[in-house]
Amino acid sequence: MCGSLRTADAGTRVRIGGWVHRRRDLGGIVFLDVRDREGIVQVSFDPRWTPAEVLRGAAAVGVESVVLVEGEVGARPAEARNADLATGEVEVRAATLMTLGPAATPAIPVARTRGEEPAAEELRLRHRVLDLRRPELQANLVLRHRLLQATRRHLSDRGFLEIETPILTKPTPEGARDYLVPSRVHPGEFYALPQSPQLYKQLLMVSGFDRYFQLARCFRDEDLRADRQPEFTQIDIEASFVQREDIVTLAEGLIVALFAEAGLAVATPFPRLAYADAMERYGVDRPDLRYGLELFDASDVFRGADFGITRAALAAGGRVRGLRLPGGARFSRKQVDELEAIAKSAGAAGLIRLRSAGGALEGPVTRFLGPDAAARLGMADGDLALFVAGPDHVSNPALDRVRQEAARRLELIPPGALAFVWVLDFPLVERDAEAGRFTAVHHPFTAPHPDDLALLASDPARARAVAYDVVLNGTELGGGSIRIHAPDVQERVFRLLGITAEEARARFGFLLEGLRAGAPPHGGIAFGFDRLAMLLAGASSLRDVIAYPKTTAARALFEGAPAAVPPEELSALHLRTDTSDEAAGAAAGD
RNA sequence: GGGACUGUAGCUCAGCUGGUUAGAGUGCCGGUCUGUCACACCGGAGGUCGCGGGUUCGAGCCCCGUCAGUCCCGCCA
User: Fold this and answer.
1) For A412-431, how does the pLDDT look when each residue is reduced to its tens digit (9 = 90+)?
2) Do A110 and A134 meet the contact criterion of CB atoms below 8 Å apart?
């Protein structure tokens, strides 16, 4: 209750427990700031109301110790109020003090001095007990709790059942790498931790639980990023007898509820973009719509120009695409070089630059273009245009990155803007460059668009899926699809993906059997919950909204996982480890 | 798997072109102090410059390797 005391409490006798945030020892009088999860309150130890030995104790107590104080809440003298503190009008006048949990000097500070950087990430993770005491992280975890509860309330109120699915599941060779768990009773066999509850939730639909949700822990053994942890939480949703619109509406309602929990108003319905349009206009399937800067096709303007780079690209069937940056002409040569470096790092050979200044175009390719080029490119005075010549699969990622960086530099991003968009009609499959076969864009259970069923045989790459992603400010919040519920369609898609009937039976037999048992049409969506919490908490790393996160090397520094196990445990699991790589490295070092 | 950055006192950081005894703030310890709130003031302790090797008369600084953390690419159906 430390943080909740107010003027109205003045005169009441209270007993408060908390952690010593700071100590100010003035000699004859001592102040302790005592902190609990609700906030901080000042406790004053003064001979007028504090026995001498209690006062001596207060002078000796170390920060971060757990104390229990009894005393009377009093209004502070007018000149001693603290407007920076929610409890700053009052203080607790201590009569007693008990140190219930004396603390060693903290390895990292909890109460930071003004302007001080937080401790290094490694130390924060190693001393997580202390780091989690910081008010920022406490606020993040409180918000996370509220989002979890709001999710449960919202979905339960709409008839969705929370059903848990197994954590020990069947390994799947497709998709991300599995975390494996050896079986003790079945030598040589393994469970896998779920990458998502996908098949379980579909089979729940087959069993008649027509509305399901779960706050599902998912595990993927892939390399990490600031917004990617090896274990994470999904809001996993599935419903029967639904079409895309039902899921879209449900998802928008949930998003409204969750953002409201964080005090943000969200307008629905969200705008929508077909995947093909998103790629054409933004070069990416999760466009940031907080600003314009749409890409456009300038191939016609460059066609016939005697300029080697664009001529070669156009002759090879590529295009010249680019974007106009209003006011971008003021970028220095160096700044444009930096944008070009970004385009290059995304795979482009370079950027073709055109600057409109003083009513004329400037740039190395100007002399190859007609006199009406500026008008045809829609360029106004002071604009800069940047182009990439080549196939779309090169220009898309390059222009996407350039567009994002240019928007930042031109300060086109309105603070606080929330630009939601649905991206619809994803392709069903794409050709895997190295394997030379088709792979599912979403996953192998996604329903083909009913109008495109014939394309599965004739031109699979053009077939659309009934899949949808919801995107906020260029970040994917969630995605889902209507699933295949007809066993013959599922078998056709497996075939398309190069999965033989035999493989399909071995790997997904339980799904096919389920679909043959009488399956309703169904579909769903999943949201990355941690990322959502991070966004709403205004955090820049997932680690700040997870109580006990892993490092980018998937280590848990706090408890020390993963860890070696005694040989007896390994042999009970019928395992032998082979760390010969490390052994060879060590030997070479001698 | 690849790239970039970082690693100096408990914590946050500085340390010049390679040159005498490696510094500051904060925390910690001791002292003074009755209205502070980053209390103030005085004094003190505190260092494997991540680790290993090399270059050099001499390395915190240069080179190679390695470990850890972070960010990015690949990867993440």
Assistant:
1) 999 889 999 999 999 999 88
2) yes
Q: How far is the CA of A122 from the C1' of B55 (A)?
A: 33
The helix-helix angle for A275-282 and A392-409 (nearest 10°) equals: 60
Contact status, residue A351 vs residue A364, Cβ threshold 8 Å:
no
| Structure-derived torsion over alpha carbons of residues A311, A312, A314, A316, reported in degrees to the nearest 10 | 160
* Distance (Å, whole) CA A107 – CA A118: 12
Is the C-beta of residue A475 closer than 7 Å to nucleic acid chain B?
Answer: no
Short-list A130, A44, A131, A157, CA closest to A91: A44
Nucleotide whose C1' lies closest to the alpha carbon of residue A107: B10
Mean pLDDT of A367-391: 89
User: Which has the closest alpha carbon to A219: A232, A207, A208?
Assistant: A232
How does pLDDT run across A307-362, given as a tens digit for each residue?
Answer: 888 899 999 899 999 999 999 988 888 888 888 888 888 888 888 999 988 878 88
A511, A510, A453: which is closest to A485 by C-alpha? A511
pLDDT tens string A465-498: 999 999 999 999 999 999 999 999 999 999 999 8
| Closest alpha carbon to C1' of B3, residue | A345
* ipTM above threshold 0.90: yes
d(CA A552, CA A125): 12
Q: What is the reported pTM?
A: 0.93
CA distance A161 to A164: 10
Give residue A584's pLDDT: 38
Residues in chain A: 590
